[in-house]
From TrEMBL:
<feature type="domain" description="Nicotinate phosphoribosyltransferase N-terminal">
    <location>
        <begin position="14"/>
        <end position="144"/>
    </location>
</feature>
<dbReference type="InterPro" id="IPR006405">
    <property type="entry name" value="Nic_PRibTrfase_pncB"/>
</dbReference>
<keyword id="KW-0662">Pyridine nucleotide biosynthesis</keyword>
<keyword id="KW-0436">Ligase</keyword>
<keyword id="KW-0597">Phosphoprotein</keyword>
<dbReference type="InterPro" id="IPR036068">
    <property type="entry name" value="Nicotinate_pribotase-like_C"/>
</dbReference>
<keyword id="KW-0328">Glycosyltransferase</keyword>
<dbReference type="Pfam" id="PF04095">
    <property type="entry name" value="NAPRTase"/>
</dbReference>
<comment type="similarity">
    <text>Belongs to the NAPRTase family.</text>
</comment>
<dbReference type="GO" id="GO:0016757">
    <property type="term" value="F:glycosyltransferase activity"/>
</dbReference>
<dbReference type="Pfam" id="PF17956">
    <property type="entry name" value="NAPRTase_C"/>
</dbReference>
<dbReference type="InterPro" id="IPR013785">
    <property type="entry name" value="Aldolase_TIM"/>
</dbReference>
<dbReference type="InterPro" id="IPR007229">
    <property type="entry name" value="Nic_PRibTrfase-Fam"/>
</dbReference>
<comment type="function">
    <text>Catalyzes the first step in the biosynthesis of NAD from nicotinic acid, the ATP-dependent synthesis of beta-nicotinate D-ribonucleotide from nicotinate and 5-phospho-D-ribose 1-phosphate.</text>
</comment>
<feature type="domain" description="Nicotinate/nicotinamide phosphoribosyltransferase">
    <location>
        <begin position="165"/>
        <end position="346"/>
    </location>
</feature>
<dbReference type="GO" id="GO:0004516">
    <property type="term" value="F:nicotinate phosphoribosyltransferase activity"/>
</dbReference>
<feature type="domain" description="Nicotinate phosphoribosyltransferase C-terminal">
    <location>
        <begin position="373"/>
        <end position="477"/>
    </location>
</feature>
């Protein structure tokens, strides 16, 4: 299998759910080629019972849209699909429409690495309804998983209190491209490095590695194994102490560290991968300090997550760095973000005004927010975000100092500070609006945003909800539309 950068995929337009294509055909056949839609991608609950999520994957949207071309091969494949009831699934005239079709979408998104909160649009997609539908699955695939991983990693990095965290997750990740996405999102969220060499090559993320238990087991003795590794990798030597017995491992590593000093080299670190990591790291630190080797760092791994790391520091463990694999790559204990893509406005053609639409639900929290939306994030004088207000694009804000709660229309919040537009244009009529600013910029943005986040929202246990509300006019519109829907008024269609 040859793996290429998934941000520059070749078969991207078939990386979708079949229904997107059958709906596209239906819209096309119904004469709705010119009809336009506005969709928002958002999630309803913060992952991991936390107070925030880290927006991620948005830096790859422009690549996705620009690469979304149905090639002759793609069309040939679709032409060969048979409907279960007999006959071709797609009409040849529709397939001719798709061949070399380009998406005429305009997309705004929360900048990668920025914080994002429930129900506000993290990506807003506008354009022909067919194109909006065609991009749905690939877009959600891109932002849902990376936002989830980035959020998980930000939590792990927070628990590590400035000590480097390396992504060790590839072997446990959900497939090869899942492993790449984990490395990318983790780096944006603050991981120092990854063990994934392909991620290093593609994204320029620093790569890091130690050695496995098999290395020690392959030599006649642990001491032989440590000596051989020190000889072979003298400039990046990290010795794994727990293949047999950590006490003996410490002694052997000290012997090799002394031998390295005589050869003008330095043992960089040791790694412990089992047992009581607090107790063993304390014993290791004491032994190395006593041996005059205070510079040798202690790295640990073994099913770590934000909670075990927090606990290790609470126990006074003198740990310098962490390798975090399974629980990061699989986003334990929440394997999906649950981000959705919902229609919020329609119009018959690009020159017509938008008609807001709403989806009602038995469950009030699932009722959608209508209209073409934008988000104002309010910052206090220290540059810390205090609240987000969802407004209607192109409409004046009735009262910039007050917003209505999303779930409870009778509750409102006072707003103060300076409002700043949260969404930024990433794609304009199918072309990148600007070069994505890259993962280093996203990483810096994430670091700054997390630093400025209210600690009451950032904490793991029972975080305070960050206020997200509706501008007065939007709240009224939502109320009126819900009322009309319940009264059974006729709804406009995209045509
Ligand atoms: N001091 C500690 N406090 C809290 N959790 C810890 C501590 N030390 C290790 N852990 C965590 O406890 C979990 C289980 O560790 P445990 O020592 O039981 O398993 P193990 O060492 O992998 O077992 P085995 O010896 O069979 O390999 C791991 O997730 C590990 O990160
Ligand atoms: O514990 P995680 O957070 O998932 O981190 C990755 C794990 O992968 C390796 O174990 P594995 O048993 O696969 O190989 P090894 O023999 O090299 O330890 C490594 O030693 C870590 O324990
Ligand atoms: O380099 C390591 O120590 C490593 C890499 C991946 C998984 N476990 C350990």
């Amino acid at each position: 299998m040859s793996l290429t950068d998934p941000t520059r995929p070749t078969d991207v337009c078939l990386n979708t759910d079949l229904y997107e294509l059958t709906m596209a055909q239906g819209f096309w056949e119904s004469g709705l080629v010119d009809s336009q839609a506005c969709f928002n991608a958002f999630f309803r609950e913060n992952p991991f019972d936390g107070g925030y999520a880290v927006a991620c994957g948005m830096g790859q949207i422009a690549d996705l849209v620009e690469n979304f071309v149905f090639t002759d091969e793609d069309v040939e494949y679709l032409a060969g699909l048979e409907a279960p009831g007999g006959g071709p699934m797609f009409k040849s005239s529709f397939l001719e429409y798709l061949r070399n079709h380009r998406l005429d979408l305009t997309i705004d998104a929360v900048p990668e690495g920025e914080l994002v909160f429930p129900r506000e649009p993290m990506v807003r997609v506008m354009g022909p309804v067919i194109d909006c539908q065609l991009i749905e699955t690939a877009l959600l695939n891109l932002v849902n998983f990376q936002t989830l991983v980035a959020t998980k990693c930000a939590r792990v990095v927070r628990a590590a209190e400035g000590h480097p965290v390396s992504d060790f997750g590839l072997r446990r990740a959900q497939g090869p491209d899942g492993g790449l996405a984990v490395a990318r999102a983790s780096y944006i969220a603050g991981a120092a490095s990854t063990s994934n060499v392909l991620a290093g090559k593609i994204y320029g993320i620093p790569v890091f590695g130690t050695h496995a238990h098999s290395w020690v087991m392959a030599f006649p003795s642990e001491l032989d194994a440590f000596r051989a590794f020190a000889k072979s990798s003298p400039k990046n030597c990290v010795l794994l102490l727990d293949t047999y017995d950590v006490r003996q491992g410490i002694k052997n590593a000290i012997t090799v560290a002394k031998e390295m000093e005589q050869a003008g080299e330095r043992l960089a670190a040791i790694r412990i991968d089992s047992g009581d990591l607090a107790r063993l790291s304390k014993q290791t630190r004491a032994a190395f300090d006593e041996a005059g080797l205070p510079y040798v760092k202690i790295s640990v791994s073994n099913d770590l997550d934000e909670y075990t790391i927090q606990s290790l520091f609470a126990q006074g463990a003198p740990i310098d760095s962490f390798g975090v694999g399974t629980k990061l790559a699989t986003c334990d204990p929440q394997p999906s973000l649950g981000g959705v893509y919902k229609l919020s406005a329609i119009r018959g053609g690009a020159a017509e005004p938008w008609t807001p639409v709403i989806k009602l639900s038995e469950q009030a929290y699932k009722r959608t927010i209508p209209g073409v939306q934008r988000v104002l994030r309010y910052y206090d004088d220290a540059g810390c975000p205090t609240a987000d207000m969802i407004c209607l694009e192109g409409q004046p804000v009735a009262d910039p100092s007050r917003m209505t709660d999303i779930l409870d229309p009778f509750a409102s919040y006072e707003l103060s500070g300076t409002p700043v537009e949260l969404l930024e244009r990433v794609v304009e009529h199918g072309r990148r609006a600007k070069e994505p600013d890259g993962i280093e910029a996203a990483r810096d943005r994430c670091k700054g945003a997390l630093m400025r986040l209210d600690p009451a929202v950032a904490r793991f246990l029972n975080p305070q909800a960050y206020p997200v509300g509706l501008e007065g006019g939007l709240a009224q519109l939502r109320h009126d539309l819900a009322h009309e829907e319940r009264a059974g008024s006729s709804r406009p269609t995209v045509g």
